[in-house]
Amino acid sequence: MIRLGDKFRLFQNNTKIYRKILDQYKNNIIGIDHIAFRSLYKNSNRFDNNFIIQKEEYNFQEYNVKANWYKNRDDNKLFNRIFNSYYLPDDWNRLSMIMSLENYNFGDLYTYSDYQHIHKENQYVAWTMIHRNSINHVALEVDNIEKLVEKMSKDGYTFNTSNNEILNVSSDKKLIQASTTSCQFKYYFKDGYHDVPYTFVEFVQRIDGREGFAESNANKIMHTTKK
User: Fold this and answer.
1) Which of 31, 88, 195, 223 has its CA 20 to 30 A from that of 127?
2) Helix H segments across 30-185?
3) What whole-number distance in Å separates Cα of residue 41 and Cα of residue 183?
4) pTM above 0.90, yes or no
């Protein structure tokens, strides 16, 4: 069972960019929109009974990944939504191999070259094998995402783009999202320390109380840890 408060405090302590953005743009931020987790197989992340799984299921065929989202029973809580994705291995042998590595640090077994090979094949798997069940990213709700992105860009922040566009807009135009480029993390492999993608900050604007997520938007956000 994931203790969300503990995971979030650890994320805050380890993530300078998140703390910096919260402090620098606190007047533009409404609160936390959602917290995103990644996992290597279904049901490896379990959340307490305050979170109700929603019916929508999202598919990301490029990475063999599916996702669900969870809604908090209590709308007044700090954490209203969880976006939880998981890898679907091609075969049982691969799943067994992944599960057998759960109790080991990836870097104790593999070199940076091994990591690069896995990353080239599937960056989602590479990220998750290193960072395990830690928070992938936190999304902040804002009331004017276009204005905030413009302001942050002038302040020197860089954003993930898709077709040269920073803003990801759902088909109903009521969910707008953007994400900073991924910050790097020094990770120890068998052959020493190397930089790997860690986390980023996402921004979300919901119009007319729009709930849930949009698969096309989420797919673009997922690309953020490619670099």
Assistant:
1) 31
2) 92-100, 106-109, 112-121, 123-131, 145-154
3) 25
4) yes
Domain residue extents for the chain: 4-226
- Kindly report the CATH number that applies to the domain delimited by 4-226: 3.10.180.50
Q: Would you give per-residue pLDDT tens digits along the chain (227 residues)?
A: 667 888 899 898 889 999 999 999 999 999 999 999 999 888 878 887 788 888 789 999 999 999 999 999 887 677 899 999 999 887 667 667 777 777 788 899 899 999 999 999 999 999 999 998 889 999 999 999 999 999 999 999 999 999 899 999 999 999 999 999 999 999 999 999 999 999 999 999 999 999 999 999 999 999 999 87
